[in-house]
Design brief:
By secondary structure, the protein is of the alpha+beta class. The chain has helices spanning about 5-10, 65-70, 70-75, 130-140, 220-225, 230-250, 255-260, 260-275, 295-335, 340-355, 365-375, and strands at about 10-15, 20-25, 30-35, 35-40, 45-50, 80, 85-95, 95-100, 105-110, 115-120, 145-150, 155-160, 165-170, 170-175, 180-190, 190-200, 210-220, 280-290. A hairpin with a 5-residue loop joins strand 16 (about 190-200) and strand 17 (about 210-220).
Amino acid sequence: MTMIDFLTGTIPVTVTETERVLVLRHGRFASMLTAGHYRLRRKGTTLHRYDIEANPAFVSSYSDALKRARPDLHDAHLTEVRAEEAEVVLISLYGWPWRLLHPGHRVTVWKDAGLWTVERHAVTGPLLPKALGDRLEAAGITRVYTPVTVPDGHTGLLFTEGALVGDLAPGLHRVWTIGAKSTVTTVDLRWRAHEVTGHEILTRDRVTLRVNLSATYRVVDARAAVTVTKDYAEALHRALALAFRKTLGALTLDELLADKVAVDETAAGEVRAAMAELGLEVAEIALKDVILPGEMREILNRVVAAEKEAEANVIRRREETNAVRALHNTAKVMADNPVMLRLKELEALETVASKVERLTVHNGTAGLLSDLVKLRD
């Protein structure tokens, strides 16, 4: 402060382009200073300086009082934006999203801070419009929604306050975090395999077995699969186990091992009918393995070994009988035709001669020929 300022009782005030100064005289709103240089009376003057570049919002305890006492001064420099119930307001500065007002919220901004635009969007459902969501995400305003991605081959079920309100196709969706609470449950619609392993069953002849079951299925009605039962995969597991327990328990061990395919079809029909009510389509159902207790396996192995041994004995006896019958027929032919017998001897001699280096024939070739002549005579 200069000597002149002190003598005249004034203070110099300089306001830049990025500032505004609220002047109070004796506690009352007097004026709002824009860019420039001023001399104000020192006594009874209070100044409140605001940087409208750093903070475009008018954050002050005088906000409501200024609007009531000096609406003209308020409206000349400030703008109040309020979001009504069931709507959000997107405030943009120079076309770039600056702030999103929740329902019932408000903000007061400096008019001279820049070029303001206001967009009002009704919150009519739990999902953000795609265009609005893309703009908010680009501006980094992400606290007002939760992104949800539904993969290909899936569907999304949208729940609001626990009630199912809609289906979501594969892709990116954004759910409001303001207002009523909403959640999304994704359901896989692709074909899947379900295994039931080590399930114990007591047959009609009181043999305890362990079986392995397999089924392929898919969800065709996502709403029913999620709302009718708590866990449709667990429901399928129980249905397979109960159906096969009922079907196999009515058979003996021999009947079960003789025709597993027929057993599968009987149990499969019951499972498919029960799962259709839960929104599931069940395709192939198979009884993959039948696992016997250790003692039973040994008994069956002995039975099978005995059966195979008996079959082998029958085949051996049959072959021996055929061989004896063939020898008998050959002997009869030789007895009726001595020349053929002699030729067989010569064939045997030729076979033996081909396998040794030297062969000695007693009585000479003449003896052999004379024997042939005798046989012919």
